[in-house]
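Run log, item B.
One chain of 171 residues. Sequence copied directly from the ordering sheet:
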Amino acid sequence: MKTEELRDKIYGWSLDLVNEGKELEGIFLLLATWNFAYFRYHMKEFPLSEFEKSLKECNFDYFKDKIFSEINLEDTEVKNKIIEIYGKLSNFKGIRWVGATKIMHLKSPNFFIMWDRNIIKHYQAKTFPEGYFNFMKLMQNLYKSGFFGNLGNNITIPRAIDLFNMDKFSP
C-alpha cells in the first residue's frame, strides 16, 4: 500500500483531537484537509450551531463498543441507527456524503468506513442513507470473504479497508 505521510498524520491528529474531547476541532481539521474541494465552498454559511445540535443527536455511544467485523448488520436496530446518523450528517452542505462518513469514522473508528467519490463509483454505491448502509454490508462481506487480504496491524479494520480502497480506487 502506498502511504501519504502528511495525510496519515492529519488523520491521526484529527482522531486524537476527537478522543481528547476537542470534537469539532478534529472533525473540521479532517474536513478542511481531506474534504477541502467541497467543504471550502460552504464554510462561510456553514450552520455550526445546527451542526453541533445534530451531532449531539446522533447516538454514537451506541457504536462505542461495536466492532465492524463482528456486528450483525442484518439487525434492524443497527441498520436504523446507521441510516439515521448518516442521514443527519449528510444533509449539511459542506459535509454531504463524503464528509458524513469521515465524521462517523472519527466518532466510531472501530465501526464506520469512510468513502470518497472514487470509492463510491467503483463499488457502484448509492449516496442516500440506505446506500451507505448497503456499502457497509458489502465491505463487511468482502472483509469476511478475505477480499482485502492482510490489512496490516495497529489500525482499525475500517481504517485498513479505507486505505485499501484509497490505494486501489482513489488517485
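Observations after the first pass:
- The radius of gyration is 15 Å.
- The mean pLDDT is 93.
Flagged for discussion on Thursday.
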